[in-house]
Amino acid sequence: MEAFFSSTLAVAIAEIGDKTQLLALFLAARFAQKSAIVSGIFVATLLNHFVSAVLGVWIAEWVAPETMKWIVGLSFIAVGLWLLLPDKNDESGGKWLRYGAFGATLILFFLAEVGDKTQIATVLLAAKYQSMFWVVVGSTLGLMLASVPVVYLGEILMKKIPVATVRIIACVLFCILGLLTLMGGGISLG
């Protein structure tokens, strides 16, 4: 269950102010079908994070535990520092909008998550915990917790959430995960 809780918390915090959260706001402003947007976010995230977790578990199986500890620990710290950099909001999604609320959301969210901080975090969490199921469930829930309120409450929430503060908190969380991993005895393979 540690994998589930760590994944949920890490991804939910990292997602606040992320480009996909801004994408959710954009889609909610564009389409009236909020449940279709939420469904698209869920399916895209589930697919993306499943592939990420498979990759993380696979990497951990082929890399020695001590080496994996250093890779994962330093990567968590790198992701934490990366969170301090604001995302570029260059995702207009114009050509995908013709697919409707669900289709546009599915495609745009999947593409936006490729190489995103939360995707990389999912790979790292799966490598660390060797629990693909709980990491996928937790990271998907974390992304949904950060994105669904934006779909329904969008502009009100974006004005009240201090994005810079959230970025700092997320950075600290990932750096702590990195340090705890580095101080631990290695990555559990069982």
From TrEMBL:
Q: Which InterPro entries match?
A: GDT1-like (IPR001727)
Q: What is this protein called?
A: GDT1 family protein
Question: GO molecular-function annotation terms?
Answer: metal ion transmembrane transporter activity
Entries under Pfam families matching the protein: GDT1 (PF01169)
Alphabetic keyword roster: Membrane, Transmembrane, Transmembrane helix
* Highest rank taxon of the organism: Bacteria
Q: To which species is this protein native?
A: Neisseria wadsworthii 9715
Membrane topology field: Multi-pass membrane protein
Q: Where in the cell is it found?
A: Membrane
**Transmembrane segments in this chain: where?**
36-61, 67-84, 96-112, 132-154, 166-187
